[in-house]
Each structure stands twice: as structure tokens, then as C-alpha cells.
Amino acid sequence: MTIYYSLTFMLLAAEMVTFCLLVAPLPYKIRKKLFTFLSESPIVAKVAYGLKISFIFVAILFADALQRMFRVTAEAELAKSGHQGVSDVRTETNLAARKFYSQRNTYLTGFTLFLSLVLTRTFYIILDLIHTQEEYAKLKKETTSKPRGSGTQAEDASKQVASLREKLAAEEAKTRDFETLKKQASQQAAEFDRLATKYNEATGSVSNKRSD
């Protein structure tokens, strides 16, 4: 694996760790401090800006890997149909290895880009959830601390509490959906590793080759 794909893999691993940290069942106070720091820290803002630039290069790598995958797939199909007269087992195995590496690079860069979008959306959903919880706790405290006054004020407070409850339930439902997505992503990654291991066992003579 070349250096830029190695860096992409490291970025993907960092994204997976960050995603697990975001959706981890942390106590409310710790989660609030963490997300407040991430959303307000100028250092984090600079790091995020640098990551945006790096994702542009990852997108270019994804386009290049996708183009190579289509080209190698076409060459493999032509070899199977016999249009090129390929009968050497070593040549066929080399084509199969190139096809595998091109697919690996496409999945690696594509999943890195996809997970970056998931991370961004998850961060803002959880941040909205924290703000909603703060508003709900503040309004509930004000409602319980005030003496029973006019019926209009009580009705308005009840409507606000009900509205915040609905919003809080919606945000929690979105968070659960992203946890389900994380489980599916982990299953797909495990399946990819299994297929890669199976392929390396089947083509042991070329398993140590590097991609271009």
C-alpha cells in the first residue's frame, strides 16, 4: 500500500475512533463539556479546516481509484472472454490481484469520505440534543420554581415543555439511528476483512504485492 493510501487508512481509523467516542454512552456532564470544547475551541476549528483540505485530496484519490477499478475490471473481463489470448495462469492471477487492489483502494477512500459525512451529521445532531436538554431542564426548573399563577402562563409553559419533549425524543431517535449505522458499518468492515483474508489465502503467491 502506497503512502497516500496508508495515510488514508490512518484517517479512516481516526474517524472510526472519533465516531465511537461521539456515540459512547458518556455521562451528560462529560458529554456536554466535550462537545462544548469541540464546538468552541479555536484549535479544533483549525484542525477541522485542515481535515477539510485533506478530504479534498481523498476525494481525488477516490475518483482515481474508481477509474482504475473500472479499467482493471474491463481488462479482466476481456481476459476471461479470450479476446486478448491470455492463457498464462500467472498473468490471470496478476489481473485478479490488480482488480482486488483497485477495489480495496476504492472502498478505502469511499468509506473514508462517507464516514466523514456521518461524523459531521452525528456531531451536530448530538450538539442539538445537548442544547435541547439544557432548554428542557431550564424550562422545567423555572416551571417548578414559580408559584402557580394565571392559567395562560401555565398553559404556555406546558406547551413549551411538551414541545421540548417532542424535540428531545426526535433527537434521541436520530442518535439511535446513527448507533445502528455504526453497527452496520462495523459488520461491513468485518466482512471486507474476511473477504480480503480469503482472497490472500487463495492467491498466496501474489498476496505480498503492492498496489500502484
Number of strands: 0
Please, how many helices?
A: 5
Query: How many domains would you count in the coordinates?
Result: 1
**Whole-number radius of gyration?**
25 Å
H/E element order: HHHHH
Ends apart, CA distance between termini = 8 Å
The major pleated sheet works out as: none
Poorly predicted runs are 205-212
Instruction: Give helix % range.
Output: over 70%
* Large-scale geometry: elongated
Secondary-structure-derived class:
mainly alpha
Determine the strand fraction and express it as a percent band: under 5%
- The chain-level mean pLDDT equals 76
Question: Short description, anyone?
Answer:
This protein has helices at about 5-25, 30-40, 40-80, 90-145, 150-200.
Show the helix and strand layout.
Layout lengths: L2 H21 L4 H13 L1 H40 L7 H57 L5 H52 L10
Family: Belongs to the BCAP29/BCAP31 family.
Function: May play a role in anterograde transport of membrane proteins from the endoplasmic reticulum to the Golgi.
Keywords: Coiled coil, Endoplasmic reticulum, ER-Golgi transport, Membrane, Protein transport, Transmembrane, Transmembrane helix, Transport
